[in-house]
Amino acid sequence: VQLVESGGGLVQAGGSLTLSCAAPGFDDYAIGWWRQAPGKGREGVSCISRSDDSTVYVDSVKGRFTISRDTAKNTVYLQMNKLKPEDTAVYYCAAERFRCSPNYSDSYYNQEYWGQGTQVTVSS
Fold first, then answer.
1. pLDDT in tens for each of the 124 residues of the chain?
2. Count of CB atoms within 10 A of residue 57's CB?
3. Do the beta carbons of residue 123 and residue 15 sit within 8 Å?
């Protein structure tokens, strides 16, 4: 099984992008998005649980990013609006068993699978 991200790119500040994470075979997993900016650690951004589609967001993206799931397509999306230069990072899809950790940003070691990452660059 593997996670495959797509949808990254270059966008101007204030613009939008939608990332996709193809996750076939992850029926018992919560799927989330992490990001890593140059010179910084990996940060948990958002997650959606498999059981009830409950979601979590890091404070810095609340009101701007929306995570969703298309069960039929085995795909999780991250809709990113009102993008800022500080959102520039490599975005990774990750899977942890069953439900999203409540303190998602601290759950790096709970993630069992990672995608290869997709670059998002927001120009000012």
1. 899 999 999 999 999 999 999 999 999 999 999 999 999 999 999 999 988 889 999 999 999 999 999 999 999 999 999 999 999 999 999 999 989 998 999 999 999 999 999 999 999 9
2. 18
3. no
Is 116 in a helix, a strand, or coil? coil
Q: Residues near 100 by Cβ (< 8 Å), separated by ≥ 6? A: 30, 32, 47, 48, 49, 54, 55, 56, 107
Question: CA–CA separation, 114 vs 12, rounded Å?
Answer: 27
Contact 72, 92 (CB under 8 A): no
| Terminal-residue alpha carbon distance, the chain | 38
Q: What DSSP assignment string belongs to 24-52?
A: TT-TTEEEEEEEE-TTS-EEEEEEE-TTT
* Strand boundaries in the chain, DSSP class E: 4-6, 9-12, 17-22, 29-36, 42-48, 55-57, 65-70, 75-80, 89-97, 113-114, 118-123
